[in-house]
Fold:
Amino acid sequence: MAVDLHLHSSASDGTLTPADIVKRAHAQGLSAIALTDHDTVAGIEEALKTGDDLGITVIPGLEMSSEYGGKDVHILGYFIDCSSPRLLETLTVLRESRLQRAQTMVDKLAGLGLEIDYGEVCSLTQGGAIGRPHVAQILVRHGLVKDIGSAFELYIGRDGPGYVAKYVLNPADVIGLIHQAGGVTSLAHPGLSRVGEELLLALKAQGLDAVEVWHTDHSDAERDTYLELATRVGLLVTGGSDCHGFGKIRGYVLGSIDIPDTIIGPLKERAGHASLT
Ligand code: AMP
Ligand code: ZN
Ligand code: FE
Ligand code: FE
Structure:
């Protein structure tokens, strides 16, 4: 059966609630999903409960950003203990810095003649992780740009005049944090981040456990390349759609890739041991 191990809910920058995601995955015939919101585990409890009710496996996860050698390195964590005090404290610091960054972006956009309200941006997640997609959504709501894509293209993309960098940890710290919470780590969308063998080996040396081979933005050739590379260097493999819900980047792609459920056993096995190494 198929699985989808990269999904964002309304706890971060997705449009669907955690319960909706699990219900839809179940209705589509998936055997397991992982909820991987940015910098928060706020949606996990609801997802686990819905999974229990319906009889579909829900893996507690998250996605954390980091930077290495000038590249965006996003790291997924799976089978994490969501009550780990160190994990929760760090996530709180990251979310608070996201709030400050949103305020700076609002100020910067005002300087460009685009007046939006910080409170309105913050109202889009319930104490979750505020990010650029929320700023984009408010710009669209007030007719200041025509759609989310244009907001990124014209203003808040990496080279845009309204861009503000986000405070991030380095990969070794993210990997260590997830390991101490009993989890296992996977490098998200390496094709999108243009990660080659050298960087992958450096991350493996820092404790990385797996690579995301299947991803909506990977071509078939990239998928094959990362599968070969992971197998050769001794990393486990993961996969997911990175669905953010309707009307968001990529659109509704939940369950759209045929990802084998056989990837889960080795991850679970490693999760039990990674924290001991
Ligand atoms: P942040 O973590 O706040 O910097 O926001 C990054 C998020 O913005 C990504 O996870 C995507 O969901 C979204 N994103 C990035 N680039 C684009 C784009 N060109 N169009 C729409 N959404 C984007
Ligand atoms: Zn996102
Ligand atoms: Fe990502
Ligand atoms: Fe993601």
